[in-house]
Structure formats: structure tokens, C-alpha cells
Design goal:
The chain has about 750 residues and is α+β, with helices and mostly antiparallel strands. It contains 24 helices and eleven strands. It starts with a helix and ends with a helix.
Length: about 750
């Protein structure tokens, strides 16, 4: 592989005009496709195999036009002090608002608070329920604006009006976060390379890659039912790996220049060595993202595959466009250790010949491997302790900031009707196979009334044919509580007994039950996902490093860093530690998607750092250095670059901590902490300590396995003879034949 990539790098360097033209054409084509594509509808959200989804599907069949998964909103009114919502003037104001709400084309129904007994016992709070024909993701912005504006007359009349429900669901804006991340990345790259031009290449190519990837997603969004969150994930991951991969190749190019090689030769060797690492690092990220399909949530699968495609584009750009741009730059890209004149180049160093920070740190670790290893493992183990108390759930309006109307509506409903009112359960009774459907409906209602934590059970509402009915159950506890989850399971357990007695099937659905089912599905998929991703990457790393212990150490180190990061997330977002500093207004269960999402994203980035850092060590060892010295050499050439890459990633992810959305804030914090733990404690401390202790045993591989594995030559050993050859005029022909 190294020889093939070496030829590819030299070819791209020489044929830079053609390579640049190809990528500009692809970017233009993707942009035109995105601009001319029909506007994407919202992603249809379904959770195959869950009881809540089965109930939704049944309602679609038995209640035509009901829009079981349609968006809902509750417009909550509170009377001024000393007044009641039942006062004549307040009644007239509320009914005027209800009439305004009914005028929307996407509105299916609006329930009058006074006709539907939606007034609190003390008469101070009332609400109007709005049902839409489409889901919250599909609702037009004009309908959302009309919903927000509908209560203005009531506010002018002195009533407090707040709006809750999923009708106001909006995708969080992350543009400013990405700008902040790119700005910090630019500063880090300038410091790393000491050159504005060299620093600009990783940023430019990453933006081109993300532009192609996101534009392609936009162009295909309507045809493939891709939502806005798909492009958000793709842009975040694409930006991260795009900068990383280009950074490693440009850094290796400058190192080759420092060894006295000609620029075309240096570009070829940079792509042949660092490029080989880029290919395998990219493969681990792709495996992690495509592996999200094991969860069997279509939306998550599409997000993973789309992001994986963007990563593949980042790899191809790093292997071709970077050497082409290096060809354009010529002598303006300085060898490693030299800075441009603008940034202080040409000055005499104060302490010439002094080892760099990476060399000094690696030398310290090699001398004290046991102490460093114990300190790193104990530190991460301590950070992971809170993860034992991990509680998973999905956010609702109760987790919104108190400044939002959704949160204020949530609190008003809890005040007037109890905390469980914000998460009613819908029980669907399928009595098509029962001889006495009405008796079955009555029995279900009576059985549920006898359960704990039940406040209200509405009478059964049958469909036109009388073979199916819905029953609304209001719990006594808030939607995200463990008590409500227990109630859902209790109703389902009762349903099994009812089925045997009446031949009627009982299903529990609604947003609260759906959240519980999604959390359970994600939780059940976590271990199979870990086994798949870590197992495949373990096999891949055996091929890369030709070792058993190095890949094993890489996988165990990753698990340690992820557990520590989950512990930090639990401590902040569930226990409330440092919640003021992080501006966490409401603690509660950790988002159920967080563990599996963190595993997928962080695993890919962690293996990036592992491959780039340890490949340098392997290269030095293969070329004759002793194991401990190879560790130091690897850090000498790779520590600065890996540090820069990690700092950039931490900056990009930290930008999301400032989001007002608790879910986005949690993702940003979790990923930033995970990258910090993995890059600076696992890869920079635990990895060199373990390799120093193992010595030659680290690179042991059974002879039979060594013969069976393909020789991919990631360390570029095959280039030692190619490096002395003069430029081959027939390189293009050789490349085509290869």
C-alpha cells in the first residue's frame, strides 16, 4: 500500500492542475445538485420493533386520518392574581385564541378548554390542545409562527400564555459553534506549523470535503428521506477528521523536507507513510459510523452512513488534493522546525539542539512507566465511577431552559394538573379478535385504574368499526422519571393477562412510552455495537501493526477513556456537579443516545491518534531502533501533531457546550472530555508506558498469523529503495497498472 500511495502522492504533486480541477468540479457539481434539488421533507421517525411503534402503526390503520404521530401543542393560560380562568372575560379571550388556532391549514383539531374540562381544580390554569396533521419535524415554519402568535391577544388582555409540545420542535443552530471551532483550529495550526500557508491547507481541504459531503446530502435529502441532523453530524465529523488527516500529511511532508528530500519526493513519501495511516484511521471511523446500523433505528443508520461518506471524502482529499496544493506552494512551505518570516522565521533559536517537548515527555515515561501507567489508570478509573449510576432517557420540555416558553408551559401544567400531566400515556386496545370488544375496553380501563402511580384514566374511545379503542392514562410522576417507566411496564404486564382473558391486545404508546422504548433499544444495542466496532477495528489494527498486544491495548485504552467520559457526563448532567459553570439548568437522565453516539465518534478519533502515533513507533522499530527508543522517536515526530489535532477537536466540540439545547450541550461536553481523556491520558501517557513495559513483546505476532496476514506496509519500509530512485516518467502508467 505504501508504494501505491507513494506513486499517487507524486502523481498528484506533478499533475496538480488536473487534481485541483477534479475537486473543484466535484464541489461545483455537488453545490449545483444541492441548489437544484427539491426541498427535503422532514425525516420520518420510526423505531421498528418497539411496542410504541406497533401501536402508532395500528392507529394509522384503524383511525384513518387521525395522524397518530402528528405534532401536538398545548397553549397554556394562567389567570392574573385574584382572577379565575372561568371568569367571563377570560373565557371570551381564550375562545378567541382557540378560533385563531383553528384557522391553520395543517391543524387537525383544537380542543376548547371549557368543553374538554381542561381547567385546573383551582380555576387558575387552563389549556387548549392543538393537534396537527403532520409530525413536528414536518410542520411548516408558518404554522409554528402562527402558533406562537396566537396567544398575543390573550397576553394583551393580562393572561399569561405559554406554549408546550413537540409542535415547536426546532433543530438547534450550530453555525456559530462551527465558526468558533474553525477559528481555534486556525490558531492551533499556525502555532504547530509556524506558517500561515501550511496552516491554511488543512482548513481549506477540510472545508472543501465538508462542502462536498453536505451538499451531496442536501441533494439526496428528498430522495433518501434525510433530515437536517444528518448533515449536522456529517459536517461535525467531516470537519474533525478532514483537519486531522491533512494535518498529519502536511506535517510528514515538512519532516521529509527537513531530512533533505526534494519536494516531489517528500510529497510522495508523506502520502506513502502518513497517507497509509490516514487510510486505516479513516477505515476505523467508517466502521464505527456504519456500525450504527446495528441499532436498527433508520434515522440513526442514515446519519451514520452519510457521515461515513463524508469521512471517505476527507481521506481521498488528504491523499490527492493535499499533495497537489503542496505542489502549488513550492518553497513557501518550510521544512519542519523552520517558521515563516512573518511568524519569526530566520531567528537563531535560544537553545539550539534541545529535544522537543514530545521527546522529553516520552523519555520521562520510558524511565517511569509503572508510575505513569498506574496514575493514568487510577485517574481514569476514578473519573469513571459516576458511570455506575448512569440513568438513560430522552429530553422533554422539562429539560429545556427556564427561559423557553416550552419549559414555562411545562411548569404551569405541572402546577395546575400534576407532574404526570406532561407525559400522558396512550393505551391502544386491539379487540379485533375478541368476542366482546366493549367488555375488553372496560376491563382494560378498570385494570389500569388499580395500578400505582395512576392519577386519571379516561373512558375508552372506540373507532368507527368498534374493534379498537384508545385510553389516555395520566401518571402521578413526571415523564422522565423511573416511576413513570415502571408504570409503562406494569400496564404492559397487565396487558398480557388481559390478552389471555379477552383475546384483546393491549399496547402502550405516546411520546413518553416512545422515549422509554427508544432508550431501551439503544441500551440493548450498546454491547453488540461495541463488540462489532471494537472487534472489526481490532482485526484491522492487527493488520496495520502486525501485533496482538498493541491493538488489544488500543481497544482497552479506548474503553477506559469512554467510561471516564461517561462518568464526567453523569457527574455534571445527572448529579449536578459544576452545573453552574456549565450553565446546566436542569439535571436528569443522560440522553439515551449519548453512550452509543460517544462510542461511535470517539472511537474513530481515538484510533486516529493511535494509528498516527504508534505507526511512527512501529516505523522506528522496523528500521532497527530498540523498543524504548522507538517509543521516544514516535513521540519526537508525532506528539506535537497529535496534540494539535486533539486540541482542535476539543475546541470544535467545546463550542457546542454553549448551546441552549441541553442535548447539544451534553454531546459537546461529552465528546470534548472524551477526546481530552483519550488523547492526553490514554495515548500520551498509558500507551507509551505500556509499550515501554512490554518491550519487544509489544510487536509479537504468531508466525502462522504473520504469514496469513497481508503486508500493507503502513510504516513505508518498501519505500526505502524507492526513495533513492529518480522520478519515474512512467509513474502514471505504473499507477494505472497497480
Amino acid at each position: 500500500m505504501a508504494t501505491f500511495l507513494y506513486k499517487l502522492g507524486r502523481l498528484a504533486f506533478r499533475r496538480r492542475h488536473f487534481v485541483a480541477l477534479v475537486w473543484v468540479a466535484l464541489l461545483t457539481l455537488a453545490g449545483v445538485g444541492a441548489a437544484s434539488a427539491p426541498p427535503a421533507g422532514s425525516t420520518s421517525f420510526s423505531i421498528p420493533g418497539t411496542e410504541a411503534q406497533k401501536a402508532f402503526d395500528l392507529l394509522e390503520q384503524r383511525y384513518p386520518g387521525m395522524s397518530a404521530d402528528g405534532a401536538t401543542a398545548r397553549v397554556v393560560f394562567k389567570a392574573p392574581d385574584g382572577e379565575k380562568m372561568t371568569d367571563k372575560a377570560n373565557k371570551a379571550t381564550v375562545r378567541k385564541t382557540v378560533k385563531e388556532l383553528q384557522s391553520g391549514s395543517e391543524v387537525a383539531s383544537v380542543a376548547d378548554p371549557y368543553a374538554g374540562h381542561a381547567v385546573s381544580k383551582d380555576g387558575t390554569i387552563a389549556y387548549a390542545s392543538v393537534k396537527y396533521k403532520v409530525s413536528g419535524m414536518e410542520l411548516e415554519d408558518s404554522a409554528k409562527d402562527a402558533l406562537k402568535d396566537a396567544g398575543q391577544d390573550a397576553r394583551d388582555a393580562g393572561l399569561t400564555v405559554e406554549i408546550g409540545g413537540d409542535a415547536l420542535t426546532a433543530t438547534p443552530e450550530t453555525g456559530s459553534s462551527e465558526v468558533i471551532g474553525i477559528a481555534i483550529a486556525a490558531v492551533v495550526l499556525v502555532i504547530t506549523f509556524g506558517s500561515l500557508l501550511a496552516a491554511g491547507f488543512p482548513l481549506l481541504t477540510a472545508i472543501i470535503g465538508v462542502g462536498i459531503g453536505v451538499s451531496t446530502i442536501t441533494a439526496l435529502a428528498s430522495a433518501l428521506d434525510l433530515g437536517s441532523t444528518t448533515s449536522t453530524l456529517a459536517s461535525m465529523i467531516g470537519l474533525a477528521v478532514g483537519i486531522d488527516y491533512a494535518l498529519f500529511i502536511v506535517s510528514r511532508y515538512r519532516a521529509e523536507l527537513a531530512e533533505g528530500r526534494e519536494r516531489e519526493e517528500a510529497a510522495g513519501r508523506a502520502v506513502g507513510t502518513a497517507g497509509s495511516a490516514v487510510v486505516f484511521a479513516g477505515l476505523t471511523v467508517v466502521i464505527a459510523l456504519v456500525g450504527l446500523s446495528v441499532v436498527n433505528i433508520p434515522m440513526l443508520t442514515k446519519m451514520g452512513v452519510a457521515a461515513a461518506g463524508t469521512v471517505a471524502i476527507a481521506v481521498l482529499i488528504a491523499l490527492t488534493l493535499i499533495p497537489a496544493l503542496l505542489g502549488y506552494a513550492g518553497r513557501r512551505i518550510k521544512p519542519a522546525g523552520e517558521k515563516s518570516k512573518l511568524l519569526g522565521g530566520g531567528r537563531t533559536p535560544k537553545r539550539p539542539g534541545r529535544p522537543n517537548m514530545g521527546t522529553r515527555w516520552a523519555s520521562f515515561v520510558v524511565r517511569r512507566p509503572v508510575a505513569v501507567l498506574l496514575l493514568g489508570v487510577i485517574g481514569l478509573g476514578a473519573a469513571a465511577i459516576p458511570a455506575a449510576s448512569l440513568e438513560l432517557g430522552l429530553p422533554d420540555d422539562g429539560s429545556q431552559p427556564v427561559s423557553t416558553t416550552q419549559r414555562r408551559a411545562y411548569d404551569l401544567l405541572s402546577e395546575g394538573f400534576g407532574p404526570g400531566f406532561n407525559g400522558p400515556l396512550m393505551v391502544v386496545v386491539d379487540a379485533k379478535g375478541s368476542d366482546h370488544p366493549k367488555a375488553a375496553f372496560t376491563k382494560v380501563g378498570d385494570e389500569i385504574k388499580g395500578l400505582k402511580d395512576v392519577v386519571t384514566v379516561t373512558p375508552a374511545t372506540p373507532n368507527k368499526t368498534g374493534d379498537t379503542a384508545t385510553i389516555t392514562v395520566v401518571p402521578d410522576s413526571k415523564p422522565s422519571s423511573a416511576t413513570t417507566e415502571d408504570l409503562v411496564h406494569a400496564i404492559r404486564d397487565k396487558g398480557a393477562d388481559i390478552t389471555s382473558a379477552t383475546d384483546a391486545t393491549v399496547l402502550v404508546t405516546g411520546s413518553t412510552a416512545m422515549n422509554i422504548d427508544v432508550s431501551q433499544k439503544l441500551n440493548d444495542a450498546l454491547l453488540p455495537y461495541l463488540a462489532l466496532v471494537v472487534g472489526l477495528a481490532f482485526l484491522l489494527l492487527i493488520v496495520v501493526f502486525r501485533s496482538i498486544l498493541v491493538p488489544l491495548k488500543a481497544a482497552l485504552g479506548f474503553l477506559l477513556s469512554v467510561m471516564a467520559a461517561l462518568g464526567a457526563v453523569v457527574a455534571v448532567f445527572q448529579w449536578g456537579w459544576l452545573s453552574g459553570l456549565m450553565n446546566v439548568e436542569e439535571t436528569g437522565p443522560v440522553m439515551s443516545m449519548m453512550p452509543i453516539f460517544m462510542v461511535g465518534v470517539v472511537f474513530g478519533l481515538a484510533m486516529d491518534y493511535e494509528v498516527f502515533l504508534v505507526t511512527r513507533m512501529r516505523e522506528a522499530y522496523v528500521h532497527g531502533e530498540k523498543p524504548q527508543q522507538a517509543v521516544v522517536t514516535g513521540f519526537k515526530h508525532g506528539a506535537r501533531v497529535v496534540t494539535a489535532a486533539a486540541v482542535i477537536m476539543i475546541a470544535v466540540f467545546s463550542g457546542f457546550i454553549g448551546s441552549s439545547e441541553s442535548m447539544v450541550k451534553m454531546i459537546g461536553f461529552g465528546l470534548a472530555v472524551a477526546v481530552f481523556f483519550d488523547a492526553f491520558i490514554v495515548r500520551m501517557a498509558i500507551v507509551p508506558a505500556v509499550l515501554a513495559l512490554l518491550g519487544k513483546r509489544a510487536w509479537w505476532l504468531p508466525k502462522w498469523l504473520d504469514r496469513a496476514l497481508p503486508n500493507v506496509d503502513v510504516e513505508g519500509d518498501g519505500l526505502r529503495t524507492d526513495a533513492d530512485r529518480r522520478t519515474d516518467p512512467d509513474a502514471e502508467k505504473e499507477l494505472v497498472r497497480a
